[in-house]
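pinging the channel bc i need a second pair of eyes. not urgent but kinda urgent?? the chain im working w is below, pasted from the shared doc
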Amino acid sequence: MATPDGGRAIIQAALDAWGRVDVLIHNAGNVRYGTIRELSDEDLNAVLDVHLKGAFHVVRAAFPHMCDAGYGRIVLTSSIGGVYGNNRCVNYAMAKSGMIGLNNVIALEGEEHNVKSNVIVPSAVTRMAEGIDTSQYPPLGPELVAPMVGWLCHEACSVSGELYAAVGGRMAEVFIGEAKGAFQPEWTIDEVDARIGQIRDKADPKVFGLHGHVDHLVYSFGRAKGQPA
């Protein structure tokens, strides 16, 4: 799976067995700890290959079959380490944040074919938690994550291009937002400094969603044309 041939082999095995691919869940993972200063090239690539490239290779192999069939559900696995980062896990953070961009493009390209893609951001005590003191954790079994994954795979799933956290019984959408910000036709460094509070004001954020690339530009261009925030 960490190679193009591996990804194709996995999907071909499914096609040989069932004749079609309706659902794809990418949940393969590994971990190699190390700070930015000390992380080896080998440990960097070991994690990127399994998490990020592995997801891409199986998606690329399955996606055309789903689009041609007019149906598909894809679930990618990210992490709070990918959304917020974590000390001594830069390779993991890079790979898991990359899932967000991959998910967005799958959702956009799959929209007209009824192929939906979403990201699960789970927290569960699995083999990857080995060595971590979990004695003070609440119940964090995978059974508290599986129902959300099941819904994202289901024909009833009504969303695409989104992220959902599941941790200890709490389920919540995770989203990227922007402050309304500040507009003026020209800027200096001093003016940025003077207005940084307004630039960072998150009181009433803008959340653009699946077509955020276009919506972000439309909103920003509108501000430049004098439209209200």
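so The CA atoms of residues 120 and 164 lie 5 Å apart. and The chain has a mean pLDDT of 94. — does that match what u expected or am i reading it wrong
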